Fold:
Amino acid sequence: MDWILLVAMAALLVFMFWSSRRRAARMKAEQEAKSRAMVPGVKVLLQGGLYGTLVEYDGEDLSKSARVELAPGMEVEVHSQAILRVVDETEETVSEDEYLQAESDQAEYAADVADGGLSSLSDDQERERAKAADASASTDAAASDLTASDVDPRDKPQS
Structure:
C-alpha cells in the first residue's frame, strides 16, 4: 500500500515539472513573437487602454523605455513592458459577410418579436409592470368595496 502512495507522489512530481517547463517554453515563445512584432510603425495597445503607433522600441533591453505616438505629433515615453500587445488591423474590422449575416439575424429577430413568437426584455419588463399595476388596482378596488356595514365591530382580527 505504501508503494502506491510513492508512485502517485512521483507521478505528481513528474507532471508538475513537465507542465512548468511547457508553460515556461510557451511564455518564452510568446515573448519572442511579441518582440519580433514590435517594429516601428506598428499599432500597439498600452496597458492603460490607449492605442498608439510604435516609434521606438528596444526588444533586447527591456529596461529601456519605448516611445509611442498617440496622435500625430504627440509622442509619449512609456516603460517597454507597458506595451500590452500589437494590434492586428484586420481584427477590429467586420467583413461584409459578417455584416450581412448580423443584419439578417437582426431582421429575423425583429420579425419574430413582431409576430409574438419572441418577446424582448423590454416587453417582458412592461408586461410585469402591467401585472403589478393590475394587482394593486384590484387590491384597491376590493378594499374600497368593503363598507362599514360589512365589518362587525365585535370581530377580532385573527392572528
